[in-house]
């Protein structure tokens, strides 16, 4: 019984001793123990899986961990299938084995004192358990897939029928289509000629634009040169004005120096 408890707890997080308790993990711990760990490898649909469930009882809030994985063909490398939460991981395990805990305990073995548990369940629950055991849920999935295939086939048939009718209509309009094709060819030739003419004009305009850009560039260079020459001319004018101002000052000093002896002679007389 301990082995069965370990198996069911590892896979579903429940066991025979604790199925009616609100916290099955705590009920499975031996007195005085604080940790419980079960690692179970099992085969399903020719694939080997591993489930690892662990429970820690601490002074604070108890902690639980659940890991799920599938082995590669080498039977050594384990590919993790664990989801973000324990609940989602548990759902993934049940989806893999297609069997929940209630279906297992009502078919695989009878719990002590619960031999009539299945008969006491409601008709809805008994139907759900039998559906899980017999794989009716998988049958429903296959049935839906088959119905979808039928729907796709009908749609494809309708599409092909519509295409066939359209082709017949086109064949009936073949003479008209031939005339239309001739007119389209004439219009195409006209458009090609027009396109050729436009291409030629475009080439001419591009050449003119290039020439204008070149002239504009030369104009900018000339403007820049004139600006520099104007600055140089202004600088020369400023130098001339400064030289003229300096010359006047020197000339004035020279005239004063020339008149100074005459003033001395007049003052002496």
TrEMBL record:
<feature type="domain" description="Rad50/SbcC-type AAA">
    <location>
        <begin position="1"/>
        <end position="190"/>
    </location>
</feature>
<dbReference type="Pfam" id="PF13476">
    <property type="entry name" value="AAA_23"/>
</dbReference>
<dbReference type="InterPro" id="IPR038729">
    <property type="entry name" value="Rad50/SbcC_AAA"/>
</dbReference>
<protein>
    <recommendedName>
        <fullName>Rad50/SbcC-type AAA domain-containing protein</fullName>
    </recommendedName>
</protein>
<dbReference type="InterPro" id="IPR027417">
    <property type="entry name" value="P-loop_NTPase"/>
</dbReference>
<keyword id="KW-0175">Coiled coil</keyword>
<feature type="coiled-coil region">
    <location>
        <begin position="181"/>
        <end position="225"/>
    </location>
</feature>
């Amino acid at each position: 019984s301990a082995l069965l408890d370990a198996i069911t707890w590892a896979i579903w997080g429940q066991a025979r001793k604790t199925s009616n308790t609100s916290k099955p993990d705590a009920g499975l711990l031996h007195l005085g123990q604080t940790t419980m760990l079960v690692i179970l490898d099992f085969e399903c649909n020719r694939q080997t899986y591993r489930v690892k469930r662990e429970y820690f009882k601490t002074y604070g809030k108890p902690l639980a961990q659940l890991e799920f994985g599938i082995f590669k063909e080498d039977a050594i490398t384990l590919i993790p299938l664990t989801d973000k939460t324990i609940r989602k991981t548990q759902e993934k395990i049940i989806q893999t084995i297609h069997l929940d805990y209630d279906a297992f305990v009502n078919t695989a073995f009878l719990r002590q004192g619960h031999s009539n548990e299945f008969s006491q369940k409601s008709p809805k629950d008994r139907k759900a358990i039998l559906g899980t055991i017999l794989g009716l849920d998988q049958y429903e999935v296959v049935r839906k897939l088959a119905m979808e295939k039928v729907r796709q086939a009908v749609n494809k048939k309708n599409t092909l029928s519509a295409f066939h009718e359209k082709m017949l209509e086109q064949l009936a309009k073949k003479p008209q289509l031939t005339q239309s094709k001739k007119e389209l060819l004439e219009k195409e030739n006209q458009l090609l000629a027009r396109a050729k003419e436009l291409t030629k004009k475009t080439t001419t305009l591009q050449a003119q634009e290039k020439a204008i850009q070149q002239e504009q560039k030369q104009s900018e260079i000339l403007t820049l040169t004139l600006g520099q020459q104007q600055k140089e001319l202004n600088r020369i004018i400023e130098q001339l004005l400064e030289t003229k101002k300096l010359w006047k000052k020197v000339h004035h000093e020279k005239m004063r120096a020339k008149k100074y002896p005459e003033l001395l002679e007049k003052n002496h007389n």
